[in-house]
Amino acid sequence: MAGSRLGQDPESTAAVTVLKRAVELDSESRYPQALVCYQEGIDLLLQVLKGTKDDTKKCSLRKKISDYMDRAENIKKYLDQEKEDGKYHKQIKIEENATGFSYESLFQEYLNETVTEVWIEDPYIRHTHQLYNFLRFCEMLVKNPCKVKIIHLLTSLDEGSGKEQQSNGLQEIKESLRSHGVLLELEYSSSIHDREIRFNNGWMIKIGRGLDYFKKPQSRFSLGYCDFDLRPCHETTVDIFHNKHTKKI
Fold it and tell me: Rounded to an integer, what distance in angstroms lies between the CA atom of residue 123 and that of residue 135?
């Protein structure tokens, strides 16, 4: 469907590639990803349509665009209902050395003015870079549009030489959050293994590596040291839920 009777110009080729991927994702029930590809492919087809002079080709393109728009709209309605029913599931695969996955880029879609309380379960908030990761995550939470008042952290206690560093670091973060009107509640568990973040607006995010999915920067003065969107990542998977449930449309 995606490739039939389209030209070989760059715009047409790009449209075919993206829409073919959309159909593949659709057939695999990966609806959030399919919707993005459909929307991108439709935009590309519209550009092709603008540059087409032949009336027959225009008519064919309009039909294709209409069909893809209908499918995209059906998927959007389905996903909106899934969110409403609490049955939404989206998976993001972060490839090795991928960039563009700062906490803001990953979580901003799920943060709004209704978020007042956050729960974080992560066994590895111990070492200096992990404490900085947690601090950066907290910085994101205190910015608009969030109105976060309570952050709950469940982590494991460093029983080795880093115990004092962990304790002091978390205490400093707690005091800093308090100055911004946010309460940090700390709890330790020796049996915690899962990594999970929950917002009181219903969203739950599970990251395979927890908050510690960024690679060490090459140097203190390399790109990505400050801007985590430019920081290469370790390979990991992000699962976003309201409820662990998916079904065919």
Answer: 15
